[in-house]
Design brief:
Blueprint: E1 4-5, H1 8-30, E2 35-41, H2 45-61, E3 64-70, H3 76-88, E4 94-97, H4 107-113, H5 125-132, H6 141-152, E5 161-165, H7 172-180, E6 189-193, H8 200-204, E7 209-212, E8 230-233, E9 237-240, E10 248-251, H9 256-260, E11 265-266, H10 273-292
Parallel strand pairs: 1-11, 2-3, 2-4, 5-6, 5-7, 7-8, 8-11
Antiparallel strand pairs: 9-10
Helix pairs in contact: 1-10, 2-10, 6-7, 6-10
Length: 294
Amino acid sequence: MSAVIIDGKQVAKDIRAELEAQVRQLKAEKGIVPGLAVVLVGQDPASQSYVTAKEKACAEIGIYSDDNRLPAETSEAELLALISKLNADPKIHGILVQLPLPKHIDESRVILAIAPEKDVDGFHPVSVGKMVIGEKTFLPCTPHGVLQLLLRSGVKLDGAEVVVVGRSNIVGKPLANLLLQKSPYGNATVTICHTRTKDLAAHTLRADIVIAAAGRPKTITADMIRPGAVVIDVGVNRVADASAKNGYRLVGDVDYLPVKEKASLITPVPGGVGPMTITMLLANTVQAATMSAH
Ligand code: L34
């Protein structure tokens, strides 16, 4: 048996069409154009390509984006000054500070400086706290994107055994939290595995749904998957490939071809979770703009 492939690009396209209609309505009825400030410090090639893709996606659905690309030497004080300017700017409804930041800048201090009502990444402690207690807030983009992929693919979460591999603040921890919420998005039984887990395969073999967010290629191999399981690959690893035109190839955290033969549903990399991350940023920006009208 070979798995059905979850087409993240197509799901992203469907949601973007829904958002485009909401943007049009917001303009017509309230005169509001949603605005997103995009902040990138430094020249990391992957970050540059993600940020460019985010700005392009904004333009496609009528969101105004304000591009702020700063040199790697930018001081923390300069970045904090930019954020307070953006916090006060009425044209800006959402602020995205692409991570990782250069080492001399304290990420948590920068995130804390973003006004919670503009925190479209859902990384501010106020947003994280609200999410954990089940209050309405901005949900972090990658976890929210994964939930949308599962929901729109008809995967049943209620009572499902889900294993999340990875405990980052931007994926593993929030995703595990959302999956266990008492909501149509949740009601799963969630296990979080990480680098110190004693027997990873013992956990993943019991899972109805395995979500790989470890940041390492081939973390999940076919012998670790129960036949018929759903496999979601959050990894985006660039591996050197002399035959590729840019010198690298993108792979996830899942050993894709063998795992595909065992799973019932699987997301590819690229074209799986990545496009959903960008789409949920658009959704959060529309949400921020909508809330600014009340
Ligand atoms: N603040 N920092 C902040 N917010 C985020 O939500 C992110 N993330 C992660 C890194 N840092 C962040 C992203 O934007 C990861 N990430 C991200 C965004 C988009 C894609 C992958 C990761 C994406 O579009 N991936 C494409 C392939 C892109 C390529 O070819 O390089 C895909 O199809 O998977």
